[in-house]
Amino acid sequence: MSTSQQPTSLSPSRASDFMQCPLLYRFRVIDRLPEKPSEAATRGTLVHAVLERLFDAPAAERTAPRAKALIPGQWDRLLETKPELGELFAEDADGVRLAGWLGEAERLVERWFSLEDPTRLEPAEREMFVETELESGLRLRGVIDRVDVAPTGEVRIVDYKTGKAPRPEYSEGALFQMKFYALVIWRLKDVVPRRLQLVYLGSGDVLTYDPVPADLERMERKLLALWDAIKQATESGDWRPRPTKLCGWCDHQEVCPEFGGTPPVYPLSISPTVSAEDGQGRMGPV
After folding, report:
1. CA atoms 108, 112, 113, 119: torsion sign
2. What is the DSSP letter of 44?
3. pLDDT digits (tens, 9 = 90+) for 205-238
């Protein structure tokens, strides 16, 4: 089992966890509590792997039939690296659920071809790990699905989503991850990405946003405020649950006070100089 430790960096997913519920962040980052694999998340991982591997083929061979033919092999590869995923279909003796699940992955992959033409794309990077340290010392890291670079040098960051596009009023939240990545690229390469593109395979929508430096400066300020709140919670041990409708899908209800549970003993030292009365552990406006 992994030992608990102080958070040292921030990724888009962990930042989103803290904004959603500080206690969820603690469970995942500090306590590292195990979570059961889900069919939806695993299907997303599978589809991402297929779309990444398709670009190994020559442009003219990047067809929908070829992409769908990659699915069984990529599923086997996932099972090899993460055998626990087999639990998803442990009680599916006749294979009906697995067949339906793989069929949905095929439909998502096929829909991608109505949104983008891979025969005309030559990604500069696929599944690109990025990491940078801001002047403040905050380390940002993450994995970008695809980076396209035009002959003129303009950069496009692309992310695949296997769910449905959010309603317009929630688009800002959807773009949080993309602006995070854009900030990292800006600080790493001194280039502001020309376009951020979210490809929603679940609904067949494409959401785009063209950032400017002021957007990324705001994102940097937001992340710094977020990190300050995380550090305060880490030092005080005061992680507040934030109940929402998403609680119904949380794996940690048994140890959550909102459901009558008791969190594990806090594994890190608590600083005597930090007082919970100062509102530590609560994220201020960011």
Report:
1. negative
2. H
3. 999 999 999 999 999 999 999 999 999 999 999 9
Alpha helices in the chain (DSSP H): 12-20, 22-25, 39-54, 64-69, 71-81, 96-112, 171-189, 213-236
Helix (H, G, I), strand (E, B) or coil at 220: helix
- Measure the CA–CA gap between 275 and 281, rounded to whole angstroms: 10
Q: Is 241 helix (H, G, I), strand (E, B) or coil?
A: coil
One-letter amino acid of 112: W
Of 11, 39, 188, nearest to 102 (Cα)? 39
Buried b (16+ CB within 10 A) or exposed e, 43-78: bbbbbbbbbbbbeeeeeeebebeebbebbeebbeeb
- At residue 273 the predicted structure's pLDDT band, cuts being 50, 70 and 90, is low
Residue with tokens 């190994």: 56
pLDDT digit string (tens) for 28-71?
Answer: 999 999 999 999 999 999 999 999 999 999 999 999 999 999 99
- Helix and strand numbers, DSSP H then E, in the chain: 8, 5
Q: How far is CA 133 from CA 18, 185, 233, in A?
A: 20, 11, 21
Secondary structure of residue 277 in the 3-state scheme: helix
Residue whose entry in the numeric block shows the structure tokens 């949104």: 115
Closest CA to 42 of 2, 1, 75, 8: 75
Using a cut of 0.85, tell me whether the model's pTM lies above it.
yes
DSSP at 84: G
Structure token pair of residue 286: 């960011």
